[in-house]
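forwarding from the other thread:

> can someone predict this with 3-methyl-2-oxobutanoic acid?

sure thing
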Amino acid sequence: PKRTRIHHLAEMKQRGERWPMLTAYDRYAAEIFDEAGIPVLLVGDSAGNNVFGYDNTIPVTVDELMPLVKAVVGGAPNALVVADLPFGSYQVSPAQGLETGIRFMKEGGAHAVKLEGGARFAPHVEALAGSGIPVMAHIGFTPQHEHALGGFRIQGRGDAGDRLIEDALALQEAGAFAVVLEMVPADVAKRVTGELRIPTVGIGAGPDCDAQVLVWSDMAGMNRGRKPRFVKPYADLGSILLDAAKAYAADVRGGEYPDAEHSY
Ligand code: KIV
Ligand code: NA
């Protein structure tokens, strides 16, 4: 197997090749997405909603994400595995961010980390990137800032578009290898993508980013609740699993499982 490296992502931008990214939180998903040729897997703090059942990503801790990172790294022989830095694990200082990044590399086996925030976090990116930890930045709507941003709202409209570009440039300058643009107008994402040397990864950011990312449970219809407008479900896994569970339950109740074929 040939591991995706950050220089491959830079080369794809130069060649104008788009690439897909998905979250993964466990071994089976990692194996399947790696086999599907997804070059970058994110162990997102979206595990807060999608694995742990929290209302948002804010309560997620490093200790909660660590075993998920290990599981995904173990299941993905080819993908570049990015570990999300949870809320409170880097905001205090660049040194705190570096310590958290080191933990995800040493204990989790991650190949890179991701953190949320604009130019204020350039020193954090620099501390990590300068120490050998590739950093993916994340601007626009940043879920860890939900309460400061006043809920799930599109970012970078009007004058805020210029600030978004300044943030992106500052993060690139600090050494980020890519930047996620979440819920920003398509024309602003297009401008950022054109200005940056490093790839942009869009989620709700229109068609002109260098890459796209989705939460896998949204992408595959495992999450049957309300979805943001940018989500396109490519399967109805939730219904498939519901039907399987119902069929199993009926068989057990009816005495049809296990039959002779499934007994010793
Ligand atoms: O945690 C997450 O899933 C993310 C992506 C949606 C970018 O940060
Ligand atoms: Na995240």
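The chain has a mean pLDDT of 97. thats all i got for now
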